[in-house]
Design goal:
The chain folds into five domains: 216 residues, Spore Coat Polysaccharide Biosynthesis Protein SpsA, Chain A; 128 residues, UDP N-Acetylglucosamine Acyltransferase, domain 1 (3 Solenoid), CATH 2.160.10.10; 119 residues, Alpha-D-Glucose-1,6-Bisphosphate, Chain A, domain 3 (3-Layer(aba) Sandwich), CATH 3.40.120.10; 209 residues, Alpha-D-Glucose-1,6-Bisphosphate, subunit A, domain 3 (Alpha-D-Glucose-1,6-Bisphosphate, Chain A, domain 3), CATH 3.40.120.10; 85 residues, TATA-Binding Protein (2-Layer Sandwich). The strands form eleven sheets. An eight-stranded mixed β-sheet has the order 14-15-18-21-24-27-30-33, covered by helices on one side. The two termini are 64 Å apart. It is elongated. It has 21 helices and 54 strands. Strand 4, helix 2 and strand 5 form a beta-alpha-beta unit. Helices cover 28% and strands 26% of the residues.
């Protein structure tokens, strides 16, 4: 016997699950809906099937092909227009020359089909309708049968006043081929609304078979949830188990990894390659399909998560459906009824209220609260670039394909025949994405020079020193999270890209406006020759080598397992410095470290400095850009004190010069500059502006209070190696222990707080704040700096990467600074609460 599987539905009530896929292809626990039906047919001896198609027909044809993978033979009939249930079967009449069974491809059932067919044949019926009893028949067509099993009446979705039976039509029929003669061709025609009432009107007998077992018409998302839970809970008799049973109502596919500290409470299904990380809590009924990663500290309840998703740390998903290839950042909270469509990205700390639905390819910003469904457009998608370049979770946000496209977007901004230098850290993720970036550049006619793995300052120096270099790229693991990769771009001067050039690259990327070079214009790829040696040679020309050599300094250096040691070790040897190196070996697993681990390393440096009576302790970040200091007494300096110290030493050695500093740094800088007939140039709170600052006349140094230093006489870019050696040079000239210099720095009293602020409110809030504080003297170089007096100020600035306003204050005492921060934070919160955005 043949079966007809009706698979033409578009599943409008299941959207966004069915956006981009036909309803029968929606997954149900371990398989798509239609596979469950096909396997049921096969288990009852039906192996030849006619599949009727309309909506996204090719998706089903491509998935099943001829059916041989299931041990079946499939025929496809595609409708050119909607033909209804009976009309679609009529469309396949040429393939139906004997008794056949009709079943929906988007329902879930375990009925005994052999029994239904046998009952049909024993009655000699021309049409048998399979009915079942349900508690609530209002959503279905009620079918009234007499004691003999003959259908006497149909009620299409009755009201309670019309209900006279709880038996409903399941859409499973056994029909004789002559029934097809009653169905008009090329016309929309329905079984229950038209064909069967027509047959009754003609006095033709229809048999109703009451089937026992499970049946669910998956017509909406609630029914989809119920069917998944029922299948997980064993209420559906399946031809084969859904996976390997590991106990506790937990079923798994192949290569599943579950951390020992994870807590799982069934029923739960975990598909192939699923990874459940540490301290995760999962409460069933929950489905997590193939190759999804559930990161640490997540709590997931009664949720359905499809394949190839990433759920970041410390999220809470309660009654949520996540479709394919979504990236959910840490600390996201999603409540009951939320549905997240394909390829969505939820930023860190986002909150989705109950029943919110996101259509595919939507982006929700970090900290955003979503109370309504997002169907068109995006939710706060801003830019490709952040302060750290292009950042994202590796193989989730940043894939090889994405990186190749990014390389092509950069290449389109550079003249053909010019060059780009590229570099990476030692991690395998960085290597993969670097090679993908390289693959996108030659096709745009760009030559690529590969520096392999060197410290970031070496790359910046190489780009600036070679005239044909129009850009530099550094690929690194984020120092804060080894799952995140940062791709950092530089211009021909080795400085971070301007916002204008970033927007050009973004425009090329999103429009896919890529340049394609002719065959003889395709760029070359080659390795750079001795970039570290070039850097060291130029470096030593900018240092008083003999003065440092004569001082015979002893220092402790923590390289943080980064690449700075490759260059700095040789430099310090040339300078005759006695070095105690720590963490000098590059280790892939140590390129990102927790703050606690970084602080522990600082304390280790401090202890060694004290025990060896070293002159100074120095700690680098992994990239060799940031510098952290420990004085000779083992005191770990905060970054602002370190910036003041470096400014004092530099201006003392070079009086009358200028130091560039960010707006939020304390007024102690001006007091230091006054001591040495210097001046302070205040610049915007952006690394790009710090790097542009060296263009100013007589600019000696630029500081940002976060461990970054620029010495423009060497090159106008952040360079931790140069900062470290300049510090040694200034120490030798000053002839004082660092602790004595620090003791004589002007006192600093500051406080800081972050106030949550939606992305969409930031612009309007800045306008309101300017009006609110118009009676004060205001500096608008970056954000809003309210100058209360010569010794007090409050700085209000939108955070460029997170949905927050930063509130900082300086005053005559720490207590006063804390009061100012609390007062202005409260005013900010009141303004946010009282103003519609």
């Amino acid at each position: 016997m043949k079966a007809v599987v009706m698979a033409g539905g578009d599943g409008a009530r299941l959207r966004p699950l069915t956006v981009g896929r036909p309803k029968p292809m929606v997954p149900l626990v371990n398989k798509v809906m239609m596979t469950h039906i096909l396997e049921l047919l096969r288990s009852h001896g039906i192996t030849e099937v006619v599949v009727t198609l309309r909506y996204l027909a090719s998706a089903i044809q491509d998935f099943y092909e001829d059916g041989s993978n299931l041990g079946m033979k499939l025929h496809y009939v595609v409708e050119d227009m909607p033909l209804g249930t009976a009309g679609s079967v009529k469309n396949a009449a040429a393939l139906l020359d004997d008794t056949f069974l009709v079943i929906s491809g988007d329902a879930l059932t375990d009925f005994n089909l052999r029994e239904i067919i046998a009952a049909h044949r024993s009655r000699g019926a021309r049409a048998t309708i399979t009915v079942t009893q349900v508690p609530n028949p209002l959503e279905y067509g009620a079918t009234v049968i007499d004691d003999e099993g003959t259908v006497v009446r149909f009620l299409e979705k009755p009201s309670w006043g019309e209900v006279i039976s709880d038996t409903v039509n399941t859409g499973i029929y056994v029909l004789e081929p002559e029934i097809l003669d009653l169905i008009p061709e090329h016309v929309a025609y329905d079984f229950s609304k038209e064909l069967f009432p027509c047959m009754l009107g003609r006095g033709m007998e229809i048999y109703g078979h009451v089937a026992e077992g499970y049946w669910c018409d998956i017509g909406n998302i609630e029914e989809y949830r119920r069917a998944s839970a029922d299948l997980l809970s064993g209420r559906v008799r399946l031809p084969a188990p859904i996976g390997s049973h590991i106990g506790g109502d937990i079923w798994v596919g192949q290569d599943v990894e579950i951390a020992p500290s994870a807590q799982l409470y069934g029923p739960i299904y975990l598909g192939d390659g699923v990874k459940i990380k540490g301290d995760v809590q999962i409460y069933g009924p929950t489905v997590i399909r193939d190759y999804t990663v559930i990161d640490n500290y997540n709590r997931i309840e009664r949720s359905i998560i499809w394949r190839n998703n990433y759920i970041g740390e410390s999220c809470e998903l309660r009654g949520v459906i996540v479709t394919r290839q979504c990236s959910i950042k840490p600390k996201v909270v999603a409540y009951e009824g939320v549905v997240i469509g394909d390829h969505c990205t939820l930023g860190e700390g986002a909150v989705l209220h109950p029943d919110v639905k996101l259509w595919p390819h939507k982006q929700v910003d970090a900290g955003a609260t979503v109370k309504e469904s997002i169907i068109w457009g995006t939710q706060g998608h801003r830019t490709l670039f952040t302060r750290y370049g292009v950042s994202g979770t590796v193989n989730v946000d940043l894939t090889s394909e994405y990186a190749a496209k990014l390389g092509a977007a950069l290449g389109a901004t550079i003249p053909k025949g010019k060059c780009v230098a590229i570099n990476r850290d030692a991690h395998r993720s960085s290597r993969m994405l670097k090679r993908a970036l390289v693959s996108g550049l030659p096709g745009a006619g760009i030559n690529v020079f590969d520096l392999e793995s060197v410290a970031i300052p070496v790359l910046r120096h190489f780009v600036r020193k070679h005239p044909d270099m129009m850009a530099g790229i550094h690929v690194r693991i984020s120092p804060f999270d080894q799952r995140v990769v940062d791709i950092r771009f530089m211009n021909e001067d080795g400085m971070n890209l301007s916002s204008t050039l970033e927007r050009t690259i973004e425009r090329n990327f999103f429009r896919e406006d890529f340049r394609r070079a002719y065959l003889d214009e395709i760029g070359i790829i080659e390795y750079a020759h001795n970039p570290v040696d070039e850097y060291i040679e130029d470096f030593l020309h900018h240092i008083d080598v003999e003065q440092i050599r004569q001082a015979r300094l002893t220092i402790v250096v923590d390289y943080s397992h980064g690449l700075a040691a490759d260059a700095l070790a040789d430099i310090l040897t040339t300078l005759g410095v006695d070095v105690v190196p720590l963490n000098a070996r590059v280790e892939e697993t140590k390129l990102a470290m927790l703050e606690e681990e970084f602080m522990a390393n600082q304390q280790r440096v401090s202890q060694i400095v004290r025990s060896l009576e070293a002159d100074v302790g120095i700690q680098f970040d992994v990239g060799g850009e940031k510098l952290f200091l420990i004085d000779e007494q083992g005191n770990v300096l905060d970054n602002i004190t370190a910036a003041l110290l470096m400014s004092e030493l530099a201006l003392c050695a070079n009086p009358g010069h200028t130091v560039a500093a960010l707006v939020h740094l304390p007024k102690a800088l001006e007091k230091i500059a006054d001591r040495h007939d210097g001046r302070v140039l205040r610049i915007s709170n952006s690394m790009q502006y710090v790097m542009l600052a060296p263009e100013e006349t007589k600019l000696l140094l630029a500081v940002d209070g976060a461990g970054n230093y620029i010495f423009p006489d060497f090159h106008p870019a952040v360079d931790g190696l140069m900062a470290a050696v300049r510090l040694l040079e200034y120490m030798v000239r000053r002839q004082l222990p660092l602790s004595d210099v620090i003791r004589n720095l002007p006192p600093v009293h500051m406080a800081h707080r972050s106030v949550p602020c939606p992305w969409e409110a930031k612009g309007k809030l800045m306008r309101l704040l300017r009006g609110h504080y118009r009676e004060y003297k205001i500096d608008t170089v970056d954000g809003l700096k309210i100058l209360l007096s010569d010794d007090e100020w409050v700085h209000l600035i939108p955070n460029p990467d997170k949905p927050f306003f930063e509130v900082a204050a300086e005053a005559t005492s720490t207590e006063r600074a804390q009061v100012l921060v609390a007062t202005y934070s409260e005013q900010l919160e009141q303004l946010l609460a009282s103003t519609p955005f």
